[in-house]
Specification:
Length: 112
C-alpha cells in the first residue's frame, strides 16, 4: 500500500480488495462505498458466513495501521483490531475465492 494515498487530503478512504473473487462485481463495490459514506465508521468490511475481510473500505484515520502491516499479515488483522468500529457488509459473493484450477472447477466456472 502506498503512503501517497493517505498523504493526499482529498482522499477520505481506501478500498482494498483482491483479484480472485470471480463473483465480485463493480456494483457490489459501489454499494459498499455508498454504505461506507453513510456509516461514518472507521471501516466497512464484507462479510459472508462467519468471515469478515476484503473487500473492505478503511477511513484515512486507519491508514497508519494498514501501512504498518508486514509480511503475510493482511487487512483482517486491522479489522480485528478495530472491533466494533467495523460495519459489516453482507456480501456472499466474496465467499468464492479461487486460487487455482481446482477452485475454478469446484465452483463450476471456467478460468478466464
Amino acid at each position: 500500500m502506498s503512503r501517497t494515498a493517505f498523504a493526499d487530503p482529498a482522499v477520505d478512504a481506501v478500498l482494498l480488495t483482491v483479484g480472485d473473487l470471480p463473483r465480485l462485481l463493480a456494483a457490489h463495490l459501489r454499494a459498499m462505498v455508498a454504505g461506507f459514506r453513510r456509516s461514518g465508521a472507521a471501516a466497512l468490511a464484507s462479510c459472508h458466513e462467519r468471515s469478515v475481510g476484503v473487500p473492505a473500505i478503511f477511513h484515512r484515520r486507519v491508514g497508519g495501521a494498514l501501512l504498518a502491516l508486514r509480511g503475510p499479515i493482511g487487512a483482517r488483522a486491522v479489522l480485528a483490531g478495530l472491533g466494533a468500529e467495523v460495519v459489516p457488509f453482507e456480501l456472499p459473493e466474496a465467499a468464492l475465492d479461487v486460487d487455482g484450477p481446482a477452485d475454478w472447477a469446484r465452483a463450476g466456472l471456467a478460468p478466464p
